[in-house]
Amino acid sequence: MPQQRIDYANVAPEGRNALLKVAEYAHNSSIDRRLRALVELRVSQMNGCAYCIDMHATEARAAGESQQRLDCLCAWRETSFFDSREQAALAWAEAVNRLDGGQVSNDVYEAARKEFSEKELVDLTLIVSLMNVWNRMAISFHKPIEPRN
């Protein structure tokens, strides 16, 4: 494992605290804990952030997620494990995270709007966006992940 480059939380506590305020909003948003953990985990998988993958997989299990669903999350489209709301959230999260062609397709948007209110979709987008910030901080500065026994 690479050595930590910068302990960003100690070097720039004001910046970290600002992110924590947004995280507090996301935690109390219209998106329930279990779905939020799935989205955070999927975005972290896409971005390759081991620290965040570990954290959000743990949170997802604490929220009641089965290990099988977590194991198959990276291939969610190939399973029948996720309901239509979860599928719409995961498709939205992937599209927002990638921004293929600089946008989210109308098909993905329409599918998400069938499952989520405007407020929920804004909250979901905020969760995806915030995960990108946390992922980029952890990856850039090699935030250490401690092994569990």
UniProtKB/TrEMBL annotation:
InterPro entries: AhpD-like, AhpD_core, CMD-like. Pfam families: CMD (PF02627). Residues 17-95 form the Carboxymuconolactone decarboxylase-like domain. Signal peptide: none annotated. GO terms for molecular function: peroxiredoxin activity. NCBIfam families: ahpD_dom. This is Carboxymuconolactone decarboxylase family protein.
